[in-house]
Amino acid sequence: METSLYDQVGGQPFFERLVNAFYEAVEKDEILRPMYPDDLEQSRRHFVIFLVQYWGGPTLYMQERGHPRLRMRHASFRITKKARDAWLSAINSALSSVRDELTEEQFVEMSSYFDMAAHQLRNV
User: Fold this and answer.
1) Which of 31-70 are b and which e, b meaning 16 or more Cβ less than 10 Å from the residue's Cβ?
2) Which pLDDT belongs to residue 95?
């Protein structure tokens, strides 16, 4: 049986490090920061449990929030090309910060997923 990426990277702590690095970039970004609430704790938690579930870990996201429906959940935000590119820059920076914890294959898989998701969520 194939091991999930969640298990391969050591579980939730890896995703917490990734998400914390992502939100460090968000806090400094003039395009992204206004799209998030003042208190980022819930946003951080939701992103962690989403990624944990997506990459094969516990399904806490689904239990608490239902189906991810990413396009619907992001529809209220104007996601322009600039916003998409800013988000990609932030997540790629975060991914680079944990790069030494990933194999090349894992890094490419995660990068590809984030790239695809960012392009699909653009709505302006």
Assistant:
1) bbeebbeeebeebbebbbbbbbbbbebeeebeeeeeeeee
2) 98
Q: What distance in Å separates the CA atoms of residue 25 and residue 93, rounded to the nearest whole number?
A: 8
**Domain range for residue 113?**
10-121
Number of domains observed in the structure of the chain: 1
Residue 37, both tokens: 């609430």
Residue 1 lies in a domain: no
How many Cα atoms within 13 Å fall on the side-chain side of residue 119? 6
**Do residues 112 and 102 touch, judged by C-beta distance below 8 A?**
no
pLDDT tens string 54-98: 999 999 999 999 998 988 888 998 999 999 999 999 999 999 999
Above 90 in pLDDT, residue 30? yes
Mean pLDDT of the chain, nearest integer: 96
Phi, psi of 37, deg, nearest 5: -65, 160
Tokens of 100: 């030494």
| CATH number of the domain encompassing residue 87 | 1.10.490.10
